[in-house]
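Standup notes
- DV: blocked on the single-chain target, sequence here:
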Amino acid sequence: MVGVCRSLSTDLVATPGVDSSTATRQPSYLVHLRHLGLPVRDYERSLRFYATYFGFDPATAQSYSDGTMIVRNADRFDLALHPATEAAAPAGFLHFGFAMADAESVRALGDRMERDGVPVVERDDEPDLVSFKCLDPDGWRVEVYWEPA
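- DV (later): unblocked, structure below
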């Protein structure tokens, strides 16, 4: 990628009845997270996992000279799987997540993954959050969740 530097403009966020001198500045553009890079020991195994459970399309897979393989899902989110001899995911809080349309879909996917032998390491079933966390083939912690709009 060729380096391009642009100044980031900001607009005042005005609130009726509030002094504009106390208004906050927010960027005048939207930013979307569109890819995630993961070190993996076996990209074919990881591709099968993410295709099977999270809708990444193997037909979109592109390989690069450094060994990275990038695959896309229907939301146009790219997952970059990069070869690594050790892809040890850190323990603890670090995770990434996939949102689902409703609570029952989250429960059903969690049950399916458990039946398939995928380690489900955490579950939460509350009125305003239904979620579970599982481990991918390299131990990366993946959250699946639903929250009301």
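- Follow-up: Residues 1-16 have pLDDT under 50 and may be disordered.
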